[in-house]
């Protein structure tokens, strides 16, 4: 029993001495003073649903804009961020005005985030809704 215990202690010490702790080689870089520029392609459809009446006799109308694809550009620096979005006409989904009528979509957002406070100013201009149902 002493021999087995001695061999176990010897193996443990050998393994413990041979193990080398891993060093953290991660290089952390701060982007606090860097400007970040982003572009986004969005296919969310802007639509509103209006319901009227009781559940049995409910009428439902869905209004949607003709523009399906939106492009956004953002720029962030330190405590301020700005975004502009629009629906460009060069996408085929946004250019079927002859069939559904003319629609336009533009929005602008400015965000301030000093310390622990976040403020967002947002403006959206949507024109040309069509009745789906």
Structure description:
This protein is an alpha+beta fold and 133 residues long. 16% of the residues lie in helices and 43% in strands. The protein is built from two helices and eight strands. It has helices at residues 2-18, 97-100, and strands spanning 35-42, 47-52, 59-65, 70-77, 80-86, 104-112, 119-127, 129-131. The strands form two sheets. It has a five-stranded antiparallel sheet with strand order 1-4-5-6-7, with no helix packed on it. It has a three-stranded antiparallel sheet with strand order 2-3-8, with no helix packed on it. A hairpin with a 6-residue loop joins strand 6 and strand 7 (119-127). The longest helix has 17 residues, at 2-18. The mean pLDDT is 81.
Jot down its keywords.
2 helices; three-stranded antiparallel sheet; alpha+beta; elongated; 133 residues; five-stranded antiparallel sheet; 8 strands
């Amino acid at each position: 029993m002493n021999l087995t215990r001695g061999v176990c202690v010897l193996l443990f010490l050998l393994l413990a001495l041979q193990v080398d702790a891993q060093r953290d080689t991660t290089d952390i870089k701060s982007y606090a003073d860097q400007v970040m520029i982003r572009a986004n392609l969005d296919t969310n459809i802007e639509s509103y649903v209006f319901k009227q009446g009781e559940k049995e006799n409910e009428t439902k109308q869905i209004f949607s804009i003709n523009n399906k694809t939106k492009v956004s550009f953002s720029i962030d620096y330190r405590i301020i961020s700005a975004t502009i979005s629009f629906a460009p006409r060069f996408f085929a989904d946004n250019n079927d005005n002859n069939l559904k009528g003319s629609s336009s979509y533009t929005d602008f957002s400015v965000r301030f985030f000093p310390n622990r406070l976040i403020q967002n100013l947002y403006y959206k201009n949507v024109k040309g809704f069509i009745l789906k149902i």
